[in-house]
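Can you give me the bound-state structure? Components:
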Amino acid sequence: MPLTMTQKADFVIAEFDTELTIFNVREAHSILQAGLAKAPDRLILDVTALQDLDSAGLQLLLWTLAQVRAPAQAVISAGDNPQFSRVSDLYAVQWPTHFTSQDD
Amino acid sequence: MDEQFNKDPLSHQHFLTFLLRDECFGISISSVKEIIEYDNVTPIPLMPDFVKGVLNLRGDVVPVIDLSIRFNKSATEISKRTCIVILEILFEEQIVTIGAVVDSVSEVIEINMDNIEPAPTFGARIRAQFILGVANVGEQFVILLRGERVLSLDEMAAIIEKVAD
Amino acid sequence: MDMTQARSLFIDEANSLLADMERFLLEIEAGDATSAQHIDAIFRAAHTIKGSAGLFGFDHIVAFTHNVESVLDKVRSGQLALDGDLINLMLQCQDHTASLIRQLEDESSGIDLVTGTALIKQLHLYLDPAPVVAAAPTAVLTDTEHWQLDVHYGEDVFRDGMDPLSQLHYLQSLGELQQVRLLPHWPAPAAFDPESCYLQLKFELASTASKQQIADVFEFVQDSSKVQISPPQQVKASLAALPTVDEKLGTLLVNAGAVTERELQSALSSQKEHDNNQALGQVLVDQGAVSSEMVAVALDKQKATEHKRPADFQFLKVEARKLDELINLVGELVTAGAGIDVLVQEIANEKLKESFSVLTGLLEQIRDGALGLRMVQVGESFSRLRRIVRDVSKELGKDIELTVEGADTELDKSMVEKLSDPLMHIVRNALDHGIESKELRLYKGKPAQGQLKLSACHEAGSVVIEIADDGAGLNIERIRAKAIEKNIISADQELAEEDIYKLIFAPGFSTAAAVTNLSGRGVGMDVVKRNIEELRGQIQISSVPDQGTVFRIRLPLTLAIIDGFLVSVAGTHLVLPLNMVQECIEFQMSQQDNERNYLDLRGEVLPFIRLRQLFELAGPPQNRENIVVVQYGKHRAGLVVDHLHGELQAVIKPLNTLFRSLRGIGGYTILGSGNVGLILDIPQLVQFATTLENQSFVH
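Here's the bound-state model for the whole set.
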């Protein structure tokens, strides 16, 4: 399983395993689709464990973020994952990392 | 419950039985490709007697072996009922097609592997390593052969080499 | 194309480039090459390997070849001389790169870091730290400036095993990435396929690289994606500064680094396609390859004189499996054709015969064409030997000159591959045991430099390869003594000179007094003989003491289909290779009267073989027999047969393992009638008959 989705309080957390590449994006996509179908308010994509990320994987993350429509929000949680930041830096991608306050 | 469903596929195997000098032999049908009439076998020069020659099997050239001579018996006499059993034998990780001359083909029988007796150490006048076992079918004994041993290309080629020298 | 396929394509390409590199280096070293072109080719080889390795993320290969490329670039621009030392170093680098590539295929073998680091150190000695402005044939930009790149990736990019990441990563080695913008073009949510690529990438690259260098990075995605590379302003200046040469506009732009070769080709073909008179410059501008300003500068530069370039050979890479399938099909077609031929002869309808003969003609052409596809020049194996001769003679301290003749002789590819090992063994043997040390040669009154000659030529439907040295020759007495010691022959056995030479092919035979690390392990020569025989070839040795040894290998042209001549003996159909058949004569009763096995053919003695006897075929000889006169090389013999049936095309089917000891028969074929015919291997047959006759004297 490329990722597991769990519901914690009012967050849905998508916890990615070590690999997100062309070899498993299809599976990852279907899991994410199923999770998104429940239209969560707040989605956290946890990529701290990712070791192997290619452009197909990065694209899937971008796509997932793009699917979450306001007022729902989604963020990336990367911790200090050097692999993840290397890829992000190369593409100069800015990820949303904090939920913007709406109700507090 | 229907008895058919109870059978363990491993415990029951199908064998093709055939006659060779009035003795009944069997060989696992998993290695039998087809059975054809004895016809159009081209002899190969300088070969020992057990090599009958080669055969054109739809574009493939297949060597034909006289099993009777291979078992140190007299040569098979070619008659109307003489057949060639085309066998596929595993040799050096490749499937090799080879033909075996037999007097006549009898039937396909199902044998419970538990009923197979070990090969007699003597009396069959066939090398024990050729024999998988002996089964008692109806009123007669069927000698079940190990195809890959009987038709071991390596061994036969070595025999031919000796003859050639 | 999946990743493994792309990867094996890369390995293939790299290997062939490395082989080129080696060949060119050796040719330059030998002094028989125009250096400028060769140096350019060597540079391009290193450059392309580096580029492709970068695309696959083989960073260690990129790192190593980058150093090689830098040194070569200096050679190319005339700042460094390619002397003996540097050639040596480059050959070592070539070896090391080859080992890196091999490691990709066989991941169990480790990467030799020690050698790599040592070589890089040596390379750095050649790299002058101070940057020098080079007057290279291709404009090298002296200023760092910004290229504008806009890459709209095709949907299949990921599926094809490409990753834009590795391209970005590689571009970082060319310069600095700036202003990277990733622009996804999302489809409707339902249409989103996670394995499709929806990315567009815009960025600037600060680099001194040429446009071609940058475009090379996108070589593998170019077919599926839209890649636009706009040169920076400064390229214009460099264009103006280019030495005035008479070149076409396109070439000029390419040389200035403003347009890639590919863009030029695409513009040229679009020009042709639309059949308009639109200027090339305009087409390039329309394609977005270059700005109109740039074209104007280039046009100013252009002179009226035409500059002709030799047409390049165009090659197409085809999977070997596809070719084999094609040849198998052609084989079946030929067999089917033979079947119809039998029917056509039976029906005996003139019109049918006529149209069938047209078909037969076409069939023959298709057959020859298909087989021709597999033909490659034998020189491919020779060039590898060059390297061995060079390295081994250095190691042994011998001075040996290698001459090659007939490297363009063509041979079936599978044969060339299988030939390479036996040739290597023979050559090593000649270097090791054949050619004497300098001192000994001088003592014998021979020139200090030893000669080794490799030659290939066509001879009567076969290919003959000769390896000749001017060394000590084979020592008959020593071989004999050794063979007796090793129990290969008995002490009292009488053998002809040629048969004694053949003893060196016996398993376990080795004459070398000292075992070196090159040859003399006692394995080898028997393998050589077996390999050659597997190719249906023969090997002969002739030797003169103190004058040298010649190994002669005779091989059939192809392994698949031959023109044959069908005969029969006692109902057995036999096929002779047509090119060896000289004539057919009737076998007179008077000649049968006595037991001698030779006859007078127009004043010459013709020995003959009674096939019925030799093959122990049933039945008494016929009243009327025929003799087929066959010739191969310098040998001539007659074969006594019952009936002559005429020419046919025989698709050769290899003998079953069962018949591996069979002598004189090379394979089978299926005749038009559906019967099996046996293809005679004439040289082997004659040898077999000779051996039998000699044995009968002994007994």
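A couple of observations. Residues 539 and 603 of chain C are 30 Å apart (CA to CA). Confidence is low (pLDDT under 50) at residues 130-144, 243-247, 303-313, 512-523 of chain C.
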